[in-house]
């Protein structure tokens, strides 16, 4: 009798897990289907490829002559005419193979073997109206490119569909921003001189900078440029996040002190450095591994930003 009970209990637990996974997958699928118009996909160019391997965040193909663009949208079509849409943020060629890394499947990922397939570069049009709040983010790797950072704008628009992102770069979810993985305050200063008008500017930098005085000076000049271009815009400065690595955190703390001392009229400051550190066991709560912010961290930052606009 006990064995029979255990058997049905295991079946029940597995069923609950499947339902939860189905609901979560549908939520993601609905968000993408709400955003993109799948009936008007524009196919720009196509290639025949051999799919050697794939996972939830990587695709390996054999045609190493291809010049594929990071953060561009592609469609992979198998022999059964099933289509799988994706984008990736980095790639490498090794042993006559192309590894597409940091990849995101937009609606669903393939199941089973694909082998020979058609790979198409596509333009995936949006079907939602532009939000009324124009947001321009000036950010380094934490705001665009590192693990959950790729979903930073995705998380924000999921919470507030009224935001519309501006910029010269695109993340893997096709949201625009200024900066990039290697951006620092000096490169963001150059961007700020010709940035387009916006209702809200978000500045997030300073984590990896060694010269605190230069950082503070650059932020002052960025603030001045943004005010010149959009005098009525809200400007939000996000402090760099702490680091679980003591040697790195010591330098970050110096940068935070410099930013805290800045007296910039009209700028709003979000001190995630102090906020994160105030939580017990913050290293495990706000970080995945020692170098990347967790999903919980980004959702908290999104809430803080959304409260300011």
The structural domain count equals 2
CATH superfamily of the largest domain: SGNH hydrolase
Distance between the termini: 60 Å
Question: Rough shape?
Answer: globular
Number of helices: 8
Strand numbers in spatial order across the main sheet = 5-6-2-1-8-3-4-7
- Tell me the CATH topology of the largest domain: Rossmann fold
The whole-number mean of residue pLDDT values reads 85
Structural class: alpha/beta
- Radius of gyration, CA atoms, in whole angstroms: 22 Å
Poorly predicted segments: 17-30
Keywords: Membrane, Transmembrane, Transmembrane helix
Protein name: SGNH/GDSL hydrolase family protein
InterPro entries: SGNH_hydro_sf
Organism: Mesonia sediminis
Structure description:
- With 309 residues, the protein is an alpha/beta fold.
- It folds into 2 domains: 38-123, Thrombin, subunit H, CATH 2.40.10; 133-308, 3-Layer(aba) Sandwich (Rossmann fold), CATH 3.40.50.
- The protein is 35% helix and 26% strand.
- It has helices at residues 2-35, 152-159, 185-192, 212-229, 246-261, 272-277, 282-285, 295-308, and strands spanning 42-54, 59-61, 74-77, 83-87, 90-94, 97-101, 104-105, 115-123, 133-139, 163-166, 169-170, 176-179, 200-204, 234-238, 267-270, 287-288, 292-293.
- An 8-stranded antiparallel sheet has the order 5-6-2-1-8-3-4-7, with no helix packed on it.
- Helix 4 (212-229) crosses helix 5 (246-261).
- The N and C termini lie far apart (60 Å).
- Residues 17-30 have low confidence and may be disordered.
- The chain crosses the membrane at residues 6-23.
- Keywords: Membrane, Transmembrane, Transmembrane helix.
- This is SGNH/GDSL hydrolase family protein.
- It comes from Mesonia sediminis.
């Amino acid at each position: 009798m006990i064995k029979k009970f255990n058997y049905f209990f295991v079946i029940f637990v597995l069923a609950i897990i499947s339902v939860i996974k189905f609901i979560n997958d549908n939520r993601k699928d609905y968000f993408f289907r709400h955003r993109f118009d799948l009936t008007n996909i524009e196919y720009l160019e196509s290639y025949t490829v051999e799919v050697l391997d794939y996972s939830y965040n990587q695709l390996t193909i054999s045609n190493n002559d291809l010049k594929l663009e990071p953060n561009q949208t592609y469609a992979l079509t198998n022999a059964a005419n099933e289509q799988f849409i994706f984008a990736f943020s980095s790639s490498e060629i090794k042993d006559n193979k192309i590894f597409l890394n940091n990849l995101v499947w937009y609606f669903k990922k393939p199941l089973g073997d694909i082998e020979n397939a058609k790979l198409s570069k596509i333009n995936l049009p949006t079907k939602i109206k532009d939000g009324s709040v124009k947001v321009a983010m000036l950010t380094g790797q934490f705001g665009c490119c590192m693990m959950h950072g790729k979903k930073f704008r995705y998380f924000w628009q999921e919470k507030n569909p009224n935001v519309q992102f501006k910029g010269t770069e695109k993340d893997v979810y096709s949201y625009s921003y200024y900066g990039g993985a290697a951006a620092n305050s000096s490169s963001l200063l150059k961007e700020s001189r010709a940035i387009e008008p916006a209702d809200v500017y978000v500045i997030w930098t300073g984590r990896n900078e060694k010269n605190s005085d230069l950082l503070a000076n650059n932020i002052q000049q960025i603030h001045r440029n943004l005010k010149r271009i959009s005098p009525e815009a809200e400007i939000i400065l996000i402090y760099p996040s702490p680091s679980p690595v003591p040697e790195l955190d010591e330098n970050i703390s110096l940068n935070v002190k410099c930013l805290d001392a800045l007296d910039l009229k009209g700028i709003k400051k979000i001190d995630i450095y102090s906020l994160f550190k105030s939580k017990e066991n913050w290293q495990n709560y706000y970080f995945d591994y020692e170098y990347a912010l967790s999903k919980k961290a980004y959702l908290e930052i999104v809430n803080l930003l959304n409260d300011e606009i």
